[in-house]
Write a structure and sequence with these properties.
Blueprint (H helix, E strand, L loop, with lengths): L17 H8 L8 H9 L6 E2 L5 E2 L2 H17 L3 H12 L20 H10 L7 H8 L3 H9 L13 H14 L9 H22 L4 H34 L1
Antiparallel strand pairs: 1-2
Helix pairs in contact: 2-10, 6-8, 9-10
Amino acid sequence: MVNAAVGRRGAPRPTMSIGEVLSLLRPEFPDVTISKIRFLEDQGLVQPERTASGYRKFDHADVDRLRYVLSVQRDHYLPLRVIREQLAAIDRGVEPPVLPGLGPRVPRLVGEHEVADRRSAGAASIMTRDQLARTAGVGDELLQALESYGLVVARPGGGYDFDAAVIARTAGELAAFGIEPRHLRAFRSTAEREAGLVEQVVTPLRRQHSTESAARGEETGREVAGLCVRLHAALLKTVLDRGSG
């Protein structure tokens, strides 16, 4: 069930500045920025009150709404127009429809208690190599192989993010079927080609050098990437269906 707090309420509640909202969201969404929050407001997904001097004042329902938007973007790759429709349904008190065809859901790699511990501690989702191995449930030999083929890569500042854990965990599950890291290099090559297509779309927006265009470029890149993932999944299914026909 969708948290009812995602919908708008009429009763007055304590309000927060955009910086305070950012601090609340950052532990769960490390990449969120003030520009991103402003962009989501411009798109009508959240509507904070304004003071007489024009400052934004967010309440807890606004934060829940932003958390919902960021979650479905991250986990389901949903475009903003679909999220806007879902929020409108929630505002009417209706459970939004399940839309499995609009994008894959990233599997959860850790238990809910561990996620809660990380959030309560305000920890960023950056792991050491040992933490990565434990979170993904893989051994050092497999992790070394994934790194040697460039499938798992440390962040520029050091450490590994949860995307690396998703890759390592998935590779470990594929290894149970005899699919080794060396067989997965084609996935990396495909991902690099698809990333090139996304960059062609996003680069003109980045060149505009404004906070609004940067946020719009981020959102456009996310949506195009989601479409690429959906197309890839559909093509793979089509090929498999033809082979079994």
